Amino acid sequence: MDRIISKDLQTDHYADDDDDDDNDNGKHVTIGSKKKKTASYFNVIFSGFALLSDGYQSGVISFINLLMTEIYGTEIFNDTMSSRLSYALFVGAIVGQLGFGLIIDRVGRKIGLILTTVLVILGAAMSAASSGVTPTGLLWMMVVSRGVLGVGVGGEYPCSSVSAGESADDVAPGKRGALFVLVTNFVIDVGYVVSAIVVVILLAIFKDNLEPVWRLALGLGIVPPLSVLYFRLRMADSKRYQQGALQKKVPYWLIMKKYWRRMLLTSGLWFAYDVVSFPNGVFSTIIINTAAPNGTLIETTAWNILLYAFYLPGAIGGALVVDKIGRRKTLALGLFAQAIVGFILGGTYGPLSANCFPMFVVSIIIMYGIFLAFGEFGPGDCMGLNAMELFPTAVRGTGYGIAAAMGKVGATVGTLAFKPMQEAMGIRGPFLIGSAICFVASVAAFFLLPEVGPDFLAEQDIDFKAYLADKGYDTTQLGLNKPKSYSSTAIATTGINNQQSGNE
Predict the structure, then answer these.
(1) What is the pLDDT of residues 306-341, one digit of tens each?
(2) Backbone phi, then psi, for 424, in 5-degree steps?
(3) Rounded Cα gap, residues 104 and 391, in angstroms
(4) 3-class secondary structure, 57
(5) What's the CA gap between 436 and 122, in Å, rounded?
(6) How many CB atoms lie within 10 A of CB 318?
(7) 140-144, long-range: CB within 8 Å, 24+ apart, which pairs?
(8) How many helices and strands (H and E) does the chain possess?
């Protein structure tokens, strides 16, 4: 099977649009088409699957903080050290998103996927193996390791998303949005759920012996990227990248003049959403402490499984409608619905918590779960999809990386602002302010985002090439250098000849 996968991916790498030789033989056309589709299928699957580890690593850190507090106490593992451990991944992710966004445009999608996979494996292994002469030394090694992991996790966003999105049209024409969501945002959400399940299982096995729990919980994040590394080594750059790459003498000024509005829009929307979504992870702790006061570690973690599980129907719901009603309406609808639910939560939290405890627990958990689900339905599914689609192939990774990095900046700002808002307005404050931000973002998305159809990526590349030509830029530099006559028939023949030579 490995050899078959390799052959398919290599055929996609060299296949030429003209396919003049294939037209002379219907059989070769069929074989070539099947091989190219198979190659694109593997590109989509193996590009997106490693994002499971990204969701896992982002979700598991909440439980690691709880475990470290139990092991070392608040004198050693204080709020400052906990913040360092949490923000190390954020800072690394911003570096990875910006850096690898450039790398995959200038060097290639494949090299970016390989490097990010290695960094995620290395960072997860270092985190699990953290040690030191003193507990503080151990924690500092973990902070550094999480930073390395963050670079890989952040790099996975542009690398995996762009590569999967560019190959999706060949796998499921007209359903690029749904397929993109299922192999990116949905996979990330599954990673969050798995992180909570793994910690519950480990706590059930090791009981009060918490050191193997945190080490195994961090180390198991290696499994998803390790399982796809071999296939990523053998896969090829997407056909769209081969046709539209711009690796030298990039006219950044011309690009910014044409796409600065889209850059501002995609980055601003992602920033606004993460300002709202990440601090709500802090609110989940408050809900759990209310529902299960003085709960054990395993009880607290089990409640998180329930809350994380609300992500999944939201992501699936968005995938089902994103190609039918469009990205613009899906994003606007999700943000608007989330704003409405958030206003209800903020308005009823006080009266319910004061007068009716059982109803408070049930209603708040359900409403909060719906709030999370709408977040995944709209912005969770569409932020990355917008950033992938709204830029031409030549700078798609760069545009995606900048937008995603702005999202992480928003997450940092929102998390830092959570406690001041809570102190000034009570626990309902973050919900009311966050919902207002969602409402404004919904209006902006509905009126400012362009409509994206099935042929948008191809049309955008044509428009970009015409724009460069109009500005006097040499457009022959677009695309990778490859022999024009090297058709899929020639590749098939070469593969047969090579196999025969090997047999001899």
Answers:
(1) 889 999 999 999 999 999 999 999 999 999 999 999
(2) -80, -35
(3) 14
(4) helix
(5) 41
(6) 30
(7) 142/85, 143/81, 143/84, 143/85, 143/88, 144/88
(8) 22, 0
Question: What's the pTM?
Answer: 0.86
Tally the domains of the chain.
1
Q: How far apart are CA 283 and CA 280, in angstroms?
A: 5
Specify if 376 maps to a domain: yes
Confirm whether 281 is domain-assigned: yes
Residue 493 within any structural domain of the chain: no
Rounded CA separation 118/370 (Å): 36
Domain of residue 338: give its range: 2-15+30-481
Residue 504 CB-density burial (10 A; 0-12 exposed, 13-18 middle, 19+ buried): exposed
Residue 503, domain member (yes or no): no
Dig out the tokens for 75 from the structure.
């004198």
The domain that contains 190 carries what CATH number? 1.20.1250.20
Tokens representing residue 216 in the block: 């195994």
Alpha helical stretches, state H, 207-326:
211-219, 223-234, 239-244, 252-277, 279-291, 297-309, 311-321
Determine contact, residues 192/59, Cβ cutoff 8 Å. yes
Give the N- to C-terminal CA distance of the chain in Å, as an integer.
Answer: 22
Residues of the chain with pLDDT > 90: what percent? 57
Under 8 Å between Cβ of 269 and 386: yes
| Cα gap 289→364, rounded to integer Å | 13
